[in-house]
Amino acid sequence: MAKASKGPAAAWLIKRLRSDVHKVTPRKRDMNALERVMALVLQGPEGSYSAAEKAVSSLKAHFIHWNEVRVSRAFEVADVLAERRVGNAPERAEAAQEYLRRVFGLQNHLELDWLYDASSERRAQLLDSIEMAPAHAGPVLDLDAMEEGDLIPVSTDMKRFLSRVGALPPSPGEKQVRSFMASQFKNKDFFANFVALQVQAGEVCDSKHPHCRYCPVLDVCPHGKKMLGKDAWSAALQDSGLAAKKKAARR
Ligand code: SF4
Q1: Which of 86, 143, 159, 170 is most open to solvent, judged by the fewest CB atoms within 10 Å of its CB?
Q2: What's the CATH class of domain 150-250?
Q3: Which atom from ligand 1 is nearest to the alpha carbon of 204?
Q4: What does DSSP assign to residue 3?
């Protein structure tokens, strides 16, 4: 029988990593890739996905084609959003038009459904080229691209992060990652859980330059403690408020 890991449990990790921005719902059937990415762009790194999705569906219902949104006057687009009570209408209208201009500028057309047949790396490349997509857009598209029967994608970033934090042994296989995360990848929040894990693994726990000082699991991570050194580790825990959490957990 495999020895139980002394590292953090999957449910505990996900609870620490999750934030409201990860609450992205699965793609609606009538939403194409151009619209899905637009919703993520309008959500940004901290906003609400449901508000951003409402902005996209409002524009879709009013304009005949996305090209019309691209070439309309800014106030016309903002008025549509304001009429439908979408918050930050002028800013969202500007972002929607800029996004459409960039996609058009890159491809000379606005069709993006090819993203779902592309590799994760190719999708990331397109998102980087747009220079407007938040960090969680890549993981969202990875899940969107799954077909029935596909296993949840496991990245090298996830393996590295789970190993560094002590949840899995060094160089774990995909099977070990899926087995460890099984409870979190199967429950009703699996979309948000996957996104939170991949953002942490790919952005915060970078392979060469992990951002340990700002990491939400620094208090339990042996690798982070070693990287920073004892004094800097203690100071980072104090600064981030994780020291208090660690103390409370001991009570
Ligand atoms: S503390 Fe550093 S090494 Fe550990 S999980 Fe966080 S970013 Fe990665």
Answers
A1: 170
A2: mainly alpha
A3: 7
A4: P
